[in-house]
Amino acid sequence: MISRLGALLRATETRVVFALLAAIALVDIGLRLVESRLSGNLAHIAEIPGLIEAAGRPESHSLLLLGNSLTHNGVSASVIGGVLPGVSVAKVTPDGTGLWDWQCLLDHQVIERREVQFDTVVIGFAWHLLSDQARNDPSRLGGLYCRMSDLANPRTIGLETGGDIGEFVTAAVLRTYALRDTLRNRFFQRLVPGYETFTQAGNSARAGAGEQPGDAAHDPGEPVVHSYRTFAGLVDRLRSKGTQVIVVAMPVQAAYEIDPELRELATTHSLTVIDLRKVEGLNGSHYVDEMHLNRAGQQILSKALAADLRAELASAT
Amino acid sequence: MIFNSFTFWAFFAGVLALYWRLPHRGQNYLLLIAGYIFYGFWDWRYLGLLAFSTVVDYYVGYLLVRVDDARRRKLLITTSVAVNLTFLGFFKYFGFFVHEMAALLTSLGFEPHLPVLHIVLPVGISFYTFQSMAYTLDIYRGKAQPARNLPEFATYVAYFPPLVAGPIERATHLLPQIQNPRRRLSQGDFAEGLYHILIGLAKKVFIADNLAPIANRIFDMPAADLTATEMLIGVYAFAFQIYGDFSGYSSIAQGVSKWLGIDLSYNFRMPYFSRSPSEFWQRWHISLSQWLRDYLYIPLGGNRRGPTRTHINLLLTMLLGGLWHGANWTFIAWGAWHGLLLIAYRMAGAESVEKPARHPAMSVLQAVAMFHFVCVGWIFFRAETLSQAFGLIGALGHGFALTDFASYAGSLLLFFAAPLLVYEWFAYRRNEMLLALSRPVWQRVALYGYFIAMVVVFPPLTQQVFIYFQF
């Protein structure tokens, strides 16, 4: 047995495999050390546990603003905090996220942490980002927001196929794989002229071809029926910890509908829906692109949201 | 289940873990079951087709060696060819011929009401029908022995690495390996398999799938809006996309098979360094060109009946080769273009081109010219219609301006394709298909590290299926 193992270790190709594994491990460790410097988004993700812990103290009133780049660009935590004195506000808005990421984030950073208690969680969304049919990125889940223990029931975190599970596990184990989009974009932004412009044009063309932002890939001929079972479960878990959940329909340039089933959740699960798809004073000049607000737009929307939140929190107490 | 998916590698790991623990017969049964699972993953409804084709060809082969009467033997081989071609014709060409017939009748003033069937093409049907047909044809010609039993033959047909996109393996090559009870995995086999798998994944995931959006974008634009530079970048991108895609698949199939202790034939040998059309066809999709040569070109008379007949045979073979790829006039035009190229080079003294050139620069010039002739063919192959193809060729007259888009697409093309081209140039110069394996360990580690890094960090934004599955 030992002689067989020795022969195996001496074999040339085994040395190649071990050298490759060592190189992969080294790169991975190096990447873990510097990843928060790779992009603003990764730096933000790294600070999330601290942000939540600082704001979500059980002894004070606290509010968590959760969302993606729509909320990041659209809502100012200082404006909200200014209108709601005595409430500590945390703003957690990692890029490109949706229901599945938010679920893992809330489960592991808020619900499971005894030292953390939020009175209110406000989630900014658009389109069908809160539905079970929201697009899922297993790499992002595995690498950034979920834990291996979540794999005990893959469907509850939106992993449908063996391929999804493979991607989740690889991203959880291999940082290079989990952060590949960031690495790729950073690399091409420096080396390829016009990379950002033409990549965004390509994305817009796909969106123009009927692909709605945030929706999972589906047969274009088949209408998608949106359901909210996962989100309802999340709302229940937050409520059982004494947290009120408010969802905010965020403004974007093209109109979208709020699903009737989401509105129904408002009555069955004591969920509050604030509709800010149209806000007085907001117009096309307040957008930097099809969906993201500029600083002036952020001020207008934040004031409108703060007023609605004040009324809502007052009625709740 | 595609080779660049986690599902396939989990499946293969399962097969491999069992395979080397089983005796020879168990290994063959495992390969048979694995082949049907692998194929059924796309659409289990077509498993019956695979099974039917297998049973027919097995019994034709079985009877061919037991029947002496020439007429009965002819009847048997006709049955095999007819069954395979009927499947292929029905699933692949029925819609095309109905459409063309309707167009013809309409142009003659009729109002045709021909049946329209919306049939999903069974994946890889062109590959396994050709492989199965070659088996009976070789037995008929006395060049191969039949399989000893049905499971053995079924394993040969359903052997999963080359099942859906080749190489089209001859019975004389693959069947004896399936029959061999002393299969083993040596260090050399492991090394070769690792090399094939890594370079294959890099070709598919890093090169082909990343070049696909560039080629798609340029081919989707109206030809009138393209500059000559943009059109050329689009065509080059497609040339490397299809090469990376198809040779990548063949390479992974070879690697996976090596780890099962079975050799597959080379389907590609650095084709873009070919200096003549005949050299190109000895390096591109080798298993199909050899199939067409042995079962079509030579039976038509090959080059034995004078120059005119040779030219007709070449053109016919390439036209049918084009049609094999799909039911569209663009594929027929692609085949015709290659047929005409073969004829033109022949008429210009092809043999002198195939000998080493007097000056190395001449070799390079010949290879560059041939690559561009191949690219003209790719325009027909990739275009949706013939008019689009001619429009794209016409874009060459739109000036060679370096637009912002051309800089962007050209930079990406260079980043994805140039390293492969450089590596293959060295391999071509040394005439070593396994160049990396003859290099020192540190060079191999560096090369494999590059492949892995590119596959991990630069996968495509949207995963693409292998182009050749549709053929």
3D structure, described in words:
The complex is a heterodimer of chains A (317) and B (471). With 317 residues, chain A is of the alpha/beta class. Chain A has 2 domains: 2-36; 40-135 and 214-316, 3-Layer(aba) Sandwich (Rossmann fold). Helices cover 53% and strands 9% of the residues of chain A. Chain A has helices at residues 2-10, 12-34, 40-55, 69-74, 77-83, 99-111, 138-145, 162-173, 175-178, 180-191, 195-208, 229-240, 260-268, 295-316; strands at 61-66, 87-92, 120-125, 244-249, 272-275. Chain A has a 5-stranded parallel sheet with strand order 2-1-3-4-5, sandwiched between helices. In chain A, helix 13 (260-268) links the parallel strand 4 (244-249) and strand 5 (272-275). The mean pLDDT of chain A is 88. Chain B is mostly helical and 471 residues long. Chain B has 2 domains: 6-183, no CATH class; 188-275 and 357-470, no CATH class. Chain B is 69% helix and 0% strand. Chain B is built from 18 helices and no strands. Chain B is globular and about 65 Å long. Chain B starts with 5 loop residues before the first helix and ends in a 14-residue tail after the last helix. The model of chain B has no long low-confidence stretch (mean pLDDT 90).
Quick synopsis:
Chain A is 53% helix and 9% strand. With 317 residues, chain A is an alpha/beta fold.
Helices and strands, with pairings:
The complex is a heterodimer of chains A (317) and B (471).
Chain A: H1 2-10, H2 12-34, H3 40-55, E1 61-66, H4 69-74, H5 77-83, E2 87-92, H6 99-111, E3 120-125, H7 138-145, H8 162-173, H9 175-178, H10 180-191, H11 195-208, H12 229-240, E4 244-249, H13 260-268, E5 272-275, H14 295-316
Parallel strand pairs in A: 1-2, 1-3, 3-4, 4-5
Helix pairs in contact in A: 5-14, 6-12, 7-8
Chain B: H1 6-19, H2 24-40, H3 47-64, H4 70-107, H5 125-140, H6 150-158, H7 171-179, H8 187-220, H9 228-259, H10 277-283, H11 286-297, H12 306-325, H13 329-347, H14 350-354, H15 360-382, H16 386-394, H17 404-430, H18 441-457
Helix pairs in contact in B: 1-2, 2-6, 3-4, 3-5, 3-6, 4-5, 6-7, 8-9, 8-17, 8-18, 9-15, 9-17, 11-12, 12-13, 13-15, 15-16
